[in-house]
Amino acid sequence: MTVVTLNGHVSATAAAGTVAANLTTTLTYDEIVAIVAWKDTGTRTLTIADVAGLVWTARSPVKANGAYKMQEFVAPSAATLGADTITATFSGATSGHTALIAFGVNYVNNATPFDTNGGLPGWTYTSGAAMTTTGIQTSTDLSPEFLFGAIMLTPSEATTSGTGFTVIESMDATDFRFAAEYVVKTTPQLDLLMYWTFGSEAATAVETLSDSIQQLGASAFPWTVTYEGAKVISTTGEVGEGVAHWYAPVVSTTGQDVTMDMSGGAALGNRVVEAKRGAAKDPRTTPASGDNEND
What we know:
Low-confidence stretches: 218-275, 277-295
Number of helices: 0
């Protein structure tokens, strides 16, 4: 069974201000995530753009622990990306280093890609205490999902992802360590601890962010029912004889299972179920020449 998966990742750092990285993906219909981290004693406006012309949205506001700051941006991508330059631009020169981690997540619900839990994106920070591990508790309402998190740590120390998590990117950005990790979960999570371990130096600032993207699933399809020569009781069944159509606008159905539950109610006789992908149209309209009304 196809599951939500990582599809390309990249990272970059700059001494101050603008930072850019080239992301390559191999699958279509991704949700692209870009997380930016920077050190700055001032207040700057951050914008994201790319050569492919994706439409970017700020998934989170700027999250700050003193001068150490992070922000998450997202953009849907229908096509694969070939070394697409993603650029984070600040409204002025930052007082410290900047860093960018970007990655694609595939087999997602492009219409509503993120989990509906009101606590997401999650964020937390700790300052001034010596520690060897830190993390953030994350809860989700849906499944399966691609849960991911980022950490910004100073002084910069090598980090190790928690058990069961996979590193997306990890880099030394001079003023801080910046890393991201992920895990795929097939059940909703309650206070899942997304964590990292690192050295024993006193951390003057630790900042973590978490979020979750849902897998494409049957529940994501807004089905509408119509019929021809049949008396339709609901969107789950019919009585009489004839043909019923269920249709739904979807971005991608690659590898998607379509299930029709015909249990319950009156006994059903012969049943034929066929799933078909075609150009966007309402089956209530007259079929074009050559179309089979019984599909």
